[in-house]
Structures are given as C-alpha cells and as structure tokens.
C-alpha cells in the first residue's frame, strides 16, 4: 500500500513530516474543517481544525457496500421497534429496574402512549456504526458496534475532509490514491429528511428547533445543517432545555410554542445522557414529547437505540418477528451482529457472567449510555461484574463480543497532540434517515457514511472526549 510505505519514509524525515502536517492543517482551515476549542466552547472568536487523520484509511469495498446496503433495513427496524410498546416493555423490563436513565425515558414513553400520540409524522436520523472484524483466518467481516438514534453526529464540517485528504495525497504525489477518496453527501441528505418532516407538518412559519447543549463545541457542524434548511427557506432556532422550559408551552391543540414561535420539528442534538438532564429538563422533555411537534427522535426511537434492545434483537427469532415475510432482510441485518449476551438475572445471565469472567479480553461490558467512554474492557469487566453479579444491578449492562479490527499506521492530528506514527483502527458510521406519515414511509434513505479513527491503544472512543478523529475512506 503506497500510503503505508509513504508514512514509514515520512516518519524518518522530521522536516518533511512537519511541512506536510502543517499543509494538512492549513488545508483543513481553508476548507472549513473547523471546530470550537475545549477552552472556549462558546466563543465565535476562536476555532481550531477539527481532529482528523493525516491520511485517509484503506477500507475494503465489500464491507463498505454491505454497510450501506443494510441501512434502510435498520431504519425500518428502528421505526418498527419505536412503535411496539409490548416489545420495548419486555426488552427493557429488567434494564429499567437497574438503570434510572432508561427508566425515566421509558416512563415518558409509557405516559405518552397512554395519553395517545398526537403527531403521526415520525422523523428518524440515525447512524449505524461498524468495525471490520479481522477473523482468525484473516478475512474481514463487518460487525455492528451499535446504532445511534439520538443526536447522531459527525457530519457537517467533516464533509470537507475527503477534499482535504485528496489535496494532502496529491501534494505528496499519491495521485492515484487521491482518486479513490470518495465524497459523501451526508449533510445534504440528512437535512433533506428534516426538511421533509417540516414540509409535512405544513406550517410555513413554524420553525425547526435544534435542542442544544450549553457547551456548543460542534456548533459549526450544526451550522452546516442549518444552512441546508435556510436554503429551503425553513426557519431554524437553537434552544437549550432551560430556554424551552422558560419560553415553551403547548396550546389547546398541543402545538408547541417557544417564545411565540410554533415548532414544527424538535431536533435533539442533546439529551442522550443522564447528566444532560435536570429535574426541570425532564419536565421539558415530557412537554415536547407530548406536543404536536415532530420529535427527532421521539422517546420510543431513542429507546430503540439502547444497547439492551440491540442485545435482544440478536436473540433467535426476534428479527423474524419484525420482518415476518422477509428472510433476506433478516439475514442481511443478522449478518452484521456480533455476539450479544444478556446479563439479566437467571441462568442465561449467569452463563454470560461466567463467560466474561473466564475470558474478559473477548468481551466488552456495556451500560445503557451514549457518547463514548462508558464501556468496560479487560480487568475492568472483572471488577464491575464482581460488584454487581449477584443482584439485579447487573441488568443495567449487556455483554458484547469484542471486535478485533485490523490496525493501520497513520498520524492523528489534534490540537496539542504530538505528531507520532500511531497504530490506528476505524469505525464506519452509516447515516440513515426516514420519515413516516401515519402508516406510510414517505422517505427511507441511506445518507452516506463517515469514518472515525482512534489509536488502537484506546479501547473506547469519542471525538469530543479527545480519543477519536475524523477520517475518510480510501476504498480498496
Ligand atoms: P457509545 O454509544 O458510547 O458510542 P459504543 O457502543 O459505540 O457506545 O462504544 C464506544 C466505543 O467502544 C466504540 O466506538 C468502540 O471504540 C468501542 N467498542 C464498543 N463496542 C465494542 C466491541 N464490541 N468491540 C470492540 N470495541 C468496541
Ligand atoms: Mg452511541
Ligand atoms: Mg458509538
């Protein structure tokens, strides 16, 4: 592989390396691959380059195509689950006894179900993440890490990364390689789904509200989506939970108003973690959930993206329930599943505990959390399981087979990170969006993909947390 050889040479020539790294960073700024800094997350005066890899990463074409091909089925699956209270109730029964966050979300789900749903337009914007597992015989195999059904990000400014990578490769004479870096049109495609939901809501003056966090480090990426919407003359506002709690209300028809503006769509870019909520924001979440606004996602769709649901879906016969007449779809989805094991109380859970304690390196212990940095690996699995294994607290977790991706040499570029040749591994994230109006799917699309790469010494990931960086695929 020319890029690998090139990197080896480059690392022994520090002056040349520094020149190329500077060129890459300057090109990132030039094309708007930028992010606010951790020091000043709410300042519009200061930005840095969004973290990225010096070179794009080789990705097997077959794995990429497989991940793209299955996405519309995952969209359908998530949507079906979100509308199936019996399934969610059963799947999450033990989890909500052990996990307060899942319980709170489920409480809202149940309350809104009992009241009767008011809005028949459903909008989903998700990202299904995969690693390419390296089997013992060396063959690559696509395995799903998880699916994100709330605040799925990493599109926006990173759409410019393929361009930056092409220029970096061209600048060192790797022209043929540069031609294999693909653009993906994810921001436009994801925004089109938001626009479609707004259009179906049918009020020209109603707004799309981005529900955002206090620390707005990714604001430039949000701005990319906003631009797509404004180009369609769709008004966008940004609000935090506290602002909605002060300025938000429902009218007699349950229309949601914020500061006098009718809200057509609430687009959550926040609200996926327990510490995103105060008592007051839970009330605000309920208010929005009960409203006539389209929620992206509604609480049922958020629950459909939990690790517990992922584990239950891997049980024999469960996918068949959702796709009774489509064995080919079942097969396509199931082919991406890694081993997933219940930790509920009972003999099955006992077996999972024993398996994990006997060989922790083969597993990941996962709580119902999002955003990176929450999973347990290796000896930590033993420590946590020893603590919870005899009581129902263990049902807050699931056990997952550990995926072992192949590693590649690359250089991770992040503000203040020393320039070193690292052994890295990547995750493919495939974007999917759908809009359902009552019983009819009016849009169900795969919206491109992203690559996110980390040093393989790090078990867990996360871009904002400082482990993972943006990457693009060099298709092989
Ligand atoms: P989150 O919702 O916090 O992103 P993930 O399931 O994506 O949770 O896990 C976070 C990170 O942990 C992943 O990006 C990946 O690096 C690592 N990870 C998760 N599951 C596995 C697995 N089965 N095998 C190997 N690494 C994993
Ligand atoms: Mg996640
Ligand atoms: Mg993840």
From TrEMBL:
ATP binds at residues 146, 307, 366-375, 400-403, 427, 452, 454, 460. Residues 206-304 form the Glutathione synthase substrate-binding domain. Pathway: Sulfur metabolism; glutathione biosynthesis; glutathione from L-cysteine and L-glutamate: step 2/2. InterPro entries: Glutathione_synthase (IPR005615), Glutathione_synthase_a-hlx (IPR014042), Glutathione_synthase_C_euk (IPR014709), Glutathione_synthase_N_euk (IPR014049), GSH-S_sub-bd_sf (IPR037013), GSH_synth_subst-bd (IPR004887), PreATP-grasp_dom_sf (IPR016185). The keyword Repressor does not apply. It holds the Pfam family GSH_synth_ATP. It catalyses: gamma-L-glutamyl-L-cysteine + glycine + ATP = glutathione + ADP + phosphate + H(+); gamma-L-glutamyl-(2S)-2-aminobutanoate + glycine + ATP = ophthalmate + ADP + phosphate + H(+). SUPFAM superfamilies: Glutathione synthetase ATP-binding domain-like, PreATP-grasp domain. Homodimer. This is Glutathione synthetase. It comes from Scomber scombrus. The lineage of its organism: Eukaryota, Metazoa, Chordata, Craniata, Vertebrata.
């Amino acid at each position: 592989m020319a890029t690998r050889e090139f990197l080896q040479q480059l690392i022994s020539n520090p002056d040349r390396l520094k020149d190329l790294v500077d060129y890459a960073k300057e090109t990132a700024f030039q094309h708007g691959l930028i992010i606010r800094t951790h020091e000043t997350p709410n300042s519009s005066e200061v930005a840095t380059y969004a973290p990225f890899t010096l070179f794009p990463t080789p990705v097997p074409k077959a794995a990429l195509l497989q991940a793209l091909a299955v996405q519309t089925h995952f969209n359908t699956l998530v949507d079906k689950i979100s509308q199936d209270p019996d399934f969610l109730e059963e799947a999450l029964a033990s989890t909500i006894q052990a996990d307060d966050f899942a319980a709170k979300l489920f409480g809202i789900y149940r309350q809104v179900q009992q009241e009767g749903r008011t809005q028949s337009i459903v909008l989903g914007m998700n990202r299904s993440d995969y690693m390419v597992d390296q089997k013992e015989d060396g063959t690559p195999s696509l395995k799903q890490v998880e699916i994100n059904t709330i605040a799925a990000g990493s599109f926006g400014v990173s759409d410019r990364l393929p361009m930056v990578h092409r220029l970096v490769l061209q600048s060192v004479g790797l022209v043929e390689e540069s031609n294999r870096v693909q653009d993906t049109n994810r921001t436009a495609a994801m925004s089109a789904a938001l626009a479609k939901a707004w259009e179906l809501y049918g009020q020209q003056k109603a707004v799309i509200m981005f529900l955002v966090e206090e620390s707005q480090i990714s604001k430039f990426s949000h701005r990319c989506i906003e631009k797509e919407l404004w180009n369609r003359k769709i008004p966008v506002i940004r609000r935090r939970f506290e602002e909605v709690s002060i300025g938000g209300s429902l009218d007699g028809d349950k229309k949601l108003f914020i500061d006098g503006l009718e809200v057509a769509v609430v687009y959550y870019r926040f609200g996926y973690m327990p510490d995103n909520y105060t008592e007051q924001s839970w009330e605000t979440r309920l208010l929005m959930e009960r409203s006539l606004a389209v929620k992206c996602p509604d609480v049922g769709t958020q629950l459909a993206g939990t690790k517990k649901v992922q584990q239950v879906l891997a049980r024999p016969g469960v996918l068949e329930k959702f796709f009774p007449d489509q064995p080919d779809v079942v097969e396509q989805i199931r082919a991406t599943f890694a081993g997933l094991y219940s930790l509920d109380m009972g003999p099955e859970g006992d077996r999972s505990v024993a398996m994990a304690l006997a060989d922790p390196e083969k597993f990941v212990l996962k709580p119902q959390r999002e955003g990176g940095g929450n999973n347990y690996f290796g000896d930590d699995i033993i420590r946590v399981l020893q603590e919870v294994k005899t009581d129902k607290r263990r049902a807050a977790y699931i056990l997952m087979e550990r995926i072992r991706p192949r590693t590649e040499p690359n250089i991770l570029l992040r503000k203040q990170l020393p320039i070193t040749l690292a052994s890295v591994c990547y995750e493919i994230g495939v974007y999917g969006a759908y809009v359902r109006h009552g019983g009819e799917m009016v849009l169900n699309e795969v919206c491109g993909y992203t690559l996110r790469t980390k040093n393989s010494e790090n078990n867990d990931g996360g871009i904002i947390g400082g482990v993972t960086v943006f990457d693009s695929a060099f298709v092989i």
